[in-house]
Amino acid sequence: MSNLKNGESQNARRSKNLAILALMFALTIFFCFYPIPIPGGVTLAFMILPLLIIAQGYDFQMTMILGVLMSVVNQLAWYTTKAAGPMAPVWQNPLVCMLPRILIGVVSYFVGYGLRKAFLHPKYVEEQGGKRLVNQKQIYAIDSVISGVSTALGVVTNTLLCGLFAVLLYNGKMLSNGTQISIEFILTWFSINFVIEIISFSLIVPPIILALRQARLVPPPKMGKAYVEGEETSLLLEESKK
Length: 242
Known about the structure:
63% of the residues lie in helices and 8% in strands. By secondary structure, it is of the alpha+beta class. Strands 4-3-5-6 form a four-stranded mixed beta sheet, with no helix packed on it. It has a two-stranded antiparallel sheet with strand order 1-2. Helix 1 packs antiparallel against helix 2, helix 2 packs antiparallel against helix 3 and helix 2 crosses helix 8 (183-214). It is elongated and about 75 Å long.
């Protein structure tokens, strides 16, 4: 299940990863400054979608880089294109705007990593010339479920922490733009999109990750112990380490 194509070097793979990171960052900027409304007057936070994809398909370093970049861009948006919004003074606080965005990637990545180590176990059979993976379809199916669960928890982390910090810092206060902040107001603001975002992103991310894995554009999932001819081994084969 190596993601290195024939004749492709590790340097070439790193260059491709950098290109994908740049693409995802570009999408993040676009979605942050140009939110896409959906029918019913709901605007989903599509800007977190690239981060959720990176968290499930790549390593923690790429996840953190994009998470920090996204939080900075989002903070800038609330001082520019979104500054006229009724909640702008709240979102301009880094604790409300930046920290939860960074933790989306942290939670989504480590939940996915832990679940894959616990539930993904490759099975190989000995053949002439090496070993052959026999449960790849099962691995991809379980991996898709894990991607959905991890994505959902990342969305929950974002909404929960944003709402929590908003309540702790601004409940009962009158903002400079005349908006009266209350728990009811905050719950209404955050709950409008919450359920829709969980369902939507949990359904969108897994097929994207599956397609990228099958195209070998992302590394294979980090898996637990491997099995060879019924014997358990804690060492993954060399091909899965590439």
